[in-house]
Design goal:
18 helices, 6-stranded parallel β-sheet, 7-stranded mixed β-sheet, alpha/beta, Rossmann fold
Length: 458
């Protein structure tokens, strides 16, 4: 009887779970069998879905239902609360697995090199998202003293940040937000939220549904300046070639021509405004300076030399996420990715001689190609990576200790308290019970110690 292919996947977010699914569905693994361990730094699985999606997006969080079905399979085992590089190393993993797939995602904010970015009151969107999503490794409070706030970026993360800042705490209370987040948002003083995009409506990266959701809140007045509705030949081509681009542009046009209402919180969407400096006084944010841009005919923009100062007391940059380097694995600081070819990790992308690939090591998701696209796009990444892994089977170095018990015995001997899929069911039940007591679907547990107490077998 052939030994099943043993694979470790580092990161139990959508990318890692899709890779596990692709492995189990492959014809090669159907004949040989596969045994997969999903490693997760958090005590709970689901990565970006749990800690990167706004709490008022239950439709997107519904993806968890599909991911659940994968983790319910007998061939998959979850090992949570394990920090790769600290609790377990690549050399350790090689003892227990034939191959390792890294799917560690992108959790840090991409840098924005403008003066004033380090002032008190200048924040990265990723940090704010982690706070309102109840991430256990961030502070429990967030400064929400600013009455006027700027959000830099025109993607869905910028919309999430702007919407959460503009909504009231009571509007978000029916969601899964934990008590510390509710108390923080309830005391939020923001009355105006200004979202800034360097280019025009046809270049915005919003998806149509997420954009329209801004207007659903009874407390948020969405305002678009008619002067910001402008298109050039490149923009018109983008609208013709993409239904989504055209839908976004149509929505923005409708908002630009309508009369303003009396909702108490104003959310302004500004286009053709390129942030050039965050202004400060006494070390704190007091304003944002932008340069007016104009289309150049191709859909890109150029500066006009016309500047404007906006009175704001806080600035959130939502200009993209960035992956962080991974211990013992090559990393390209320029692209923020692990260098690879179709998922095979390259030892040295510039090498002309010798071995090109790191034996038995693969990559998928945002750490593979950068943080672009929607969650579902990582399925294609996973399929490509798994196809390469399976094609390499005959060349993989077999694990010396492939029995599944070997790695758990190793972790236990090292004194590492790890969670399991059964533990997730216990934590899930605990969070739902907390919510039921207040008439809500669930209340997320924030403290790592509390998550472990609920998830570990008693």
């Amino acid at each position: 009887m052939r030994t099943p292919l043993r694979v470790a996947i580092i990161g139990a977010g959508p990318a890692g779970i899709y890779a596990a699914d692709a492995l189990m569905k492959s014809d090669a693994c159907a004949h040989r069998g596969v045994s997969i361990d999903l490693y997760e730094r958090m005590p709970a699985p689901f990565g970006l879905i749990r800690y990167g999606v706004a709490p008022d997006h239950p439709r997107i969080k519904g993806i968890i239902t599909a991911l659940h079905k994968v983790l319910d399979k007998d061939q998959v085992r979850l090992l949570g609360n394990i920090d790769y590089g600290t609790d377990i190393t690549l050399d350790d993993l090689r003892q227990f697995y034939d191959a390792v797939i890294f799917s560690t995602g992108a959790n840090a904010d991409r840098a924005l090199a403008i003066p004033g970015i380090d002032l008190d009151g200048s924040y990265g969107a990723a940090d704010f998202v982690s706070w309102y999503d109840g991430h256990p490794d961030v502070p429990r409070s967030w400064p929400l003293e600013a009455e006027k706030v700027a959000v830099l970026g025109v993607g869905n993360v910028a919309l999430d940040v702007a919407r959460v800042l503009a909504k009231t705490g009571d509007e978000l209370l029916p969601t899964e937000i934990p008590p510390n987040v509710y108390e923080g948002l309830k005391a939020n003083k923001a009355l105006e939220v200004h979202v800034f995009g360097r280019r025009g409506p046809a270049q915005a990266k919003f998806t149509p549904l997420e954009l329209r959701e801004l207007d659903h809140s009874p407390t948020i007045e969405v305002i678009v300046n008619p002067e910001d509705i402008d298109y050039d030949e490149g923009s018109e081509a983008a609208r013709r070639n993409s239904k989504q681009v055209d839908m976004v542009a149509n929505t923005l046009e409708q908002w630009a021509i309508r009369d303003h209402g009396d909702r108490p919180h104003k959310l302004f969407l500004h286009f053709f405004e390129s942030p050039s400096e965050i202004l400060g006084a006494d070390g704190k944010v007091v304003g944002l300076k932008t340069e007016r841009t104009q289309l150049d005919g191709t859909g890109n923009v150029k500066g006009t030399g016309e500047f404007r100062v906006w009175e704001v007391q806080a600035v959130y940059r939502a200009v993209g996420y960035r992956s962080e380097d991974v211990a013992d694995i090559p990393f390209d600081d320029r692209t923020g990715t692990i260098p690879n070819e179709a998922g095979r990790v390259l030892i040295d992308p510039n090498a002309r001689e010798g071995a090109r690939y790191l034996d038995g090591v693969y990559v998928t998701g945002w750490i593979k190609r950068g943080p672009v696209g929607l969650i579902g796009h990582t399925k294609g990444d996973a399929a490509e990576t798994v196809a390469c892994l399976l094609a390499d089977q005959a060349r993989l170095t077999p694990a010396p200790r492939p029995h599944p018990d070997a790695v758990t015995e190793h972790l236990t001997a090292a004194g590492i308290a790890f969670t399991t899929w059964e533990g997730w069911y216990r934590l899930d039940a605990h969070e739902r019970a907390l919510g039921e007591a207040e008439g809500r679907e669930r209340i997320k547990v924030v403290e790592r110690a509390d998550m472990l107490h609920a998830g570990l077998a008693q």
